[in-house]
Amino acid sequence: MPHAPHRLRDHLLDPSGGLVYHLRAARHRHRLWAPFHASVAGWLADWQPGRRELLIVGPSAGYALPDGFFTRFAQVTALEPDPLARWLLRRRADAAQLRFDRLDCLAAPDGLARLAARYPDAAILFSNVLGQLDAPVESWSALLARHLASHAWASYHDVISTAALPARNAPCTVCTVETLDATLTRFWTDRELEVTDHRSFRLGGRGPFRYAVWAIAPHRNHLVEWAEHPAPTSP
Question: Angle at CA 16, nearest 5°, toward 7 and 25?
């Protein structure tokens, strides 16, 4: 039977997730990843979307989500293709209100439109996923602006990855308009920095933006951006 174009397929082996990611987490989450996870916890604590329902896209096993985060919402729905990650998410202490959907909202040009229609009242959290996947058309910023303008949403996502160690690790908030190179110099002082560009810089186009370095492995560092969009207020 052919695969339905908007149904999320299971993925257990993936270059940026699946078993490889779980093995990394088992090794690094309590030490090497701890500073980055503290930054995510701070971002999520400050995020007050004003919604009782949460839709979370790509949470994996929720390693970066602080304990008790799901209890802030009356209902939590996750879109997660990794069956092992779903199994682990169900076993979180705060997972009583958690359920799963199989909507694939990221592969097709109208995926975010379908997401918006299915969850009109939910706050949406993209959990380090948009920087891992190319937009099916245009850019993620354009698709978010077109299809989720009426939703409260937030995203943390990879901006660049590099083997170079940062000169500074302190997270920062950028309120002014600046280039990617200018943001990188806040952390790296190398004049010739070799990076992989994840094409997600200043996602959504509105600030302020927050940044933190994630040392995902001893010789692999990611710059992660936090962006959020509030739901429009009623007149």
Answer: 115
Q: Are 68 and 98 in contact (CB under 8 A)?
A: no
DSSP state of 170: -
Structure tokens at 183: 């943001």
CB atoms within 10 A of CB 85: 23
Question: Does an H or E element contain 76, and which?
Answer: strand 75-79
The SS3 assignment for 232 reads: coil
Following CA atoms 210, 216, 218, 219 in sequence, which dihedral angle do they give, to the nearest 10 degrees? -80
Residues 6+ positions from 201 with CB-CB distance below 8 Å: 159, 180, 183, 225
- Report CA-CA distances (Å) from 13 to 10, 78, 196, 220: 9, 19, 21, 20
Cβ neighbours around 99 below 10 Å, total: 10
Q: How far apart are CA 74 and CA 54, in angstroms?
A: 8
Quote the CA–CA distance of 50 and 73 in Å, as a whole number: 10
Q: What is the pLDDT of residues 66-114, one digit of tens each?
A: 999 999 999 999 999 999 999 999 999 999 999 999 999 999 999 999 9
H-assigned helices in the chain: 18-28, 34-46, 83-90, 111-118, 140-147, 180-184
Per-residue model confidence as pLDDT tens digits over 23-62: 999 999 999 999 999 999 999 999 999 999 999 999 999 9
pLDDT cut 90: percent of the chain above it: 86
DSSP strand pairing (53-57 vs 123-127): parallel
Percent of the chain with pLDDT over 70: 93
